[in-house]
Amino acid sequence: MKKLGLLSISFLLIGVLSSCDLLINRAAKQYDLVLSPKELSVAQGASKEFTLEVKPLTGSLTVATTEVELTTSLPTGITLEPTTLTIATGEKARTITVTVAKTAALVQDLEVEFKAVRDGLAAYSTLNLSVTESSQ
Fold first, then answer.
1. How do beta strands 31-36 and 47-56 pair?
2. pTM for this predicted structure
3. Distance CA 3, CA 10 (A)
4. Strand order in the sheet with 121-132
5. What are 31-56's pLDDT values in tens digits?
6. Number of neighbouring beta carbons within 10 Å of residue 78
């Protein structure tokens, strides 16, 4: 009977601790890193733009800046400008340009990851990038 009681208490304690961890993580996350569009197709020798924005999950963000960086190594012939940026509180979406050289290899669904850090908390977002053959 004592073993059954200890086992029940152990499961209860694990459940309580798991719930606390979940609540702490949800409370800590204050924002999302939003890319628009999330999928981009660029022809060889061309450029296209997408936007990156820090959006609060609820209410407004505290006074702080958000540091955003590209965390994916890009294949030869594909560049992003800028690859790092600082976004101030209240600042609107920022534009990032993808440029593909004429000699770049064709790529389908390359996951290009961005990491944002604000108040010591990180958020991630991924752009699905494809390089298509030039029509020229």
1. antiparallel
2. 0.74
3. 10
4. 39-43, 121-132, 107-118, 66-70, 84-87
5. 889 999 999 999 999 999 999 998 88
6. 19
For 3, which DSSP code? H
Closest by Cα among 130, 10, 116 to 65:
116
88: left (phi over 0), alpha (psi -120 to 50) or beta: beta
Q: Set out the domains of the chain in order of their start, with CATH numbers.
A: 30-132 (2.60.40.10)
Q: How far apart are CA 125 and CA 114, in angstroms?
A: 5
Q: Which amino acid would we find at residue 71?
A: T
Q: Which residue has the tokens 């990038």?
A: 129
Distance, in Å, from the CA atom of 115 to the CA atom of 40, rounded to the nearest integer, reads 18
How far apart (Å, rounded) are the C-alpha atoms in residues 56 and 73? 28
- Joined together, the tokens standing for residue 100 give 């593909």
CB 115 within 8 A of CB 122: yes
The encoded tokens of residue 74 equal: 């890009």
